[in-house]
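Subject: Sanity check before I submit

Could someone independently write out the structure tokens for this chain? I want to compare against mine line by line before I put it in a report. The sequence has 70 residues.
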Amino acid sequence: MRILLAEDEEHLGEGICVNLEAEGYRVLWAKDGEEALDLWRENRVDLIVLDVMMPKRSGMEVCERIRAAG
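---
Independent answer below. Compare away.
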């Protein structure tokens, strides 16, 4: 299973990645909303975990764009 994690806080992102990878998941980590959208467009992911407050685009904006794309 591939998970897209969008988290701009370095220590939180690292901790989440380490724990998910330890459980066998492949994690793509975006550090802002634009990068999250780019990674989503370029990769097939099974789950997206979004931080609400991120640089460039909020997690809500990213979610709205992904939902609109179908």
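---
OP: Matches mine. For the report I'm noting this point. Helices lie at 10-22, 33-42, 59-69.
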